[in-house]
Amino acid sequence: MTPYYKTDLGELYLGDALEILPTLPSNQARAIITDPPYGVGSVDKRLEGVREDYNLIPQIAPEFYRILQDNAVAIVFAGQKTYCETVKALEDAGFTIHQTLIWHRPNLVGGTNKSTFGFTSVYEQIIVAHKGRPGRPNRVEGLHNTDVLKYAMPQSNFKRDKRYHRHQKPLKLMEHLVLAYTNPGELIVDPFAGAGTTAMAAERHGRRWIAIEIEKGFVEIARARLTGVL
């Protein structure tokens, strides 16, 4: 399959991860770092009538396991409503759940779905799943590898980390994960690339990467961000 855009380090694909991942070689990636659709209640255009809270991990987790090297890691963001289902799907695929990290969003003053939740939601969960034995994360200069990671959510008025996608993750957060769990030259795969933040983090720090996104508009944004246009 031909990439929509590529650099010396990475390839960006326009298409469905459920179709593209099976074409990738086995035992090649050092890390999966991804933020799949979960619990947001908007339409998933892959299947008519299916919403983004439809959890794709049960279908795709076996592919995660197949393309990862031994003793490699899958870093998967998970919503509160789909956390248990996601953990089970990863375990059923052969992964061992090492721990769950918390991304604390200090600037999310309004919270999420205030009419539904009694308390304002200012965090998301990040599941750390291993294929084989877990390795110790790299020490990241100037940062602490605690299980609570505090990074501001991208906003429309930010210059360096401007918000282009409703569920866009902070570049600094993704850089922290990239640096902690991979080394230069190793391959990172993001099957749900959105606006391309994981690919940007990998590109900036000399990691090879493969990113897949189903929406052409977001692929264009990811390409523009990677080329420095945005």
Could you describe the 3D structure shown?
- This protein has 230 residues and is of the alpha/beta class.
- The chain has a single domain (5-226), classed as 3-Layer(aba) Sandwich (Rossmann fold).
- Helices cover 24% and strands 24% of the residues.
- The protein has 6 helices and 9 strands, in the order E-E-H-E-H-E-H-E-E-E-H-E-H-E-H.
- The chain has helices spanning 17-20, 57-67, 83-92, 171-181, 197-204, 216-226; strands at 5-6, 10-14, 29-34, 68-78, 96-104, 123-131, 148-150, 187-190, 208-213.
- The protein has a 9-stranded mixed sheet.
- Strand 1 (5-6) and strand 2 form a beta hairpin.
- Helix 2 crosses helix 3 (83-92) and helix 4 (171-181) crosses helix 5 (197-204).
- The longest helix has 11 residues, at 57-67.
- The protein is globular.
- The protein starts with a strand and ends with a helix.
Runs in which pLDDT lies below 50 for 5 or more consecutive residues are 39-53
Using only CA atoms, what is the Rg? Answer: 16 Å
Q: Please provide the count of β strands.
A: 9
How many DSSP H or I helices?
Answer: 6
Top-tier CATH class: Alpha Beta
Helicity, in percent? 10-25%
Question: Structural class, please?
Answer: alpha/beta
Helix-strand layout with pairing:
Layout: E1 5-6, E2 10-14, H1 17-20, E3 29-34, H2 57-67, E4 68-78, H3 83-92, E5 96-104, E6 123-131, E7 148-150, H4 171-181, E8 187-190, H5 197-204, E9 208-213, H6 216-226
Parallel strand pairs: 2-9, 3-4, 3-8, 5-7, 8-9
Antiparallel strand pairs: 1-2, 4-6, 5-6
